[in-house]
Amino acid sequence: MEQLQALRRKIDSAEDLQSVVRTMKTLAAVNIREYEKAVESLRQYSRTVELGLQVLMRDAGPEAMKPWDREETRIGAVVFGSDQGMVGQFNDQIVAFAVEAMDGSGIPRGNRHVMAIGERVTARLEDAGHRVEEEVSLFDFIMDLTSVVQNILVKIDEWRIGKDIGRIRIFFNRTSSEASYEPAVTDLLPLDMDWLRGLETKPWPTRVLPAYSMGWKPLFSSLLRQYFFVTLYRATVESLAGENASRLAAMQVAEKNIEERLEELNAKYQHRRQEAVTAELLDIVSGFEVLSESGDR
Questions:
Q1: Residues 6 or more apart from 137 whose CB is under 8 A from it?
Q2: Could you give the CA distance from residue 16 to residue 252 in angstroms, rounded to a whole number?
Q3: What does pTM read for this prediction?
């Protein structure tokens, strides 16, 4: 009987854990969709910023590109990971991808500056031989991603001005399906000169070009900052979507393991229960036989 009670407790614990896992699966799926919606909402804003840059490039042309077209010998890497666990190989994969990309750049490790987004990715970067100079926790700003992005931009400005870092690369995971992800990289700086030249010659979508009253240099700088903001915001929400995709995959594996464990425990419980019932019946039969023999005498 004591063994049956122990098995019953194990089954109850497994069922409670199964309920938690299913809840986490649901939350992860909902979060993925919300972050995907956030990425979709950026497209129009990004398009507006690009149109503004297109107008300025038609007027300024090569002069606007001069400060951004230079050889870079130092690199700043912004690596997005996670603050929370139960994400499988999410952090390990993005660190391996980022380190491989930095090693392939030809820039020595002494000229690499690393910023970790998410506490759990920091240790993995340092284990890979890269000292993390800046760390930003997504958990502190999870309800206000704008503050996260602005915080990262401030630190990037400090890199550019204080350490003369003109090459900034953003490493992050993004969803490839509902329950899977893949590593990706976006170059924030230097600006893509081919893209800017393409804007200079790109036809305007209407017959009338917009006019602007302020000088093109401060307006160009302002639009670039918006471009940087959009790029970083997209990387942030895509990384969060990828994190939840990894968590969803981990929860699916956990749910399968729990179901198999419950099946095993229930089978064992039924077997032990049947043994107990059989033993009780045998005791009754034996007792009846003993009483019958006593009566015959």
A1: 83, 118, 119
A2: 16
A3: 0.81
Report whether 243 contacts 28 (CB < 8 A). no
- Tell the residue number behind the tokens 């393991």, with chain if given: 257
pLDDT of 73 strictly over 60: yes
Residue 90 to residue 179: CA distance in whole angstroms: 12
Confidence of residue 142 (pLDDT cuts 50, 70, 90): low
CB-based contacts of 191, cutoff 8 Å, min separation 6: 65, 68, 69, 224
Q: SS3 sequence, 146-194?
A: HHHHHHHHHHHHHHHHHHCCCEEEEEEEEEEECCEEEEEEEEEECCCHH
Could you give the CA distance from residue 251 to residue 28 in angstroms, rounded to a whole number?
9
Residue type (1 letter), 161: I
- What is the distance between the alpha carbons of residues 175 and 90, in angstroms, rounded to a whole number? 11
Q: What is the pLDDT of residue 226?
A: 92
Give the pairing of strands 112-117 and 180-189: unpaired
**Percent of the residues in the chain that have a pLDDT greater than 90, as a whole number:** 29
Q: What is the pLDDT of residues 152-184, one digit of tens each?
A: 999 999 998 888 888 999 999 998 876 688 999
SS3 state at 78 = strand
The residue to which tokens 């036809």 are assigned: 203
List the beta bridge partners of residue 80. 117
Cα gap 62→111, rounded to integer Å: 29
Dihedral of alpha carbons 119, 31, 146, 160, sign? positive
> Would you report the helix, strand and coil content of the chain in percent, each value rounded to 5?
70, 15, 20
Whole-number Cα distances in Å, 289 to 65, 103, 162, 193, 296: 104, 85, 97, 99, 11
Q: Does residue 185 contact residue 171 with C-beta atoms inside 8 Å?
A: yes
Phi, psi of 133 (to 5 degrees): -85, -35
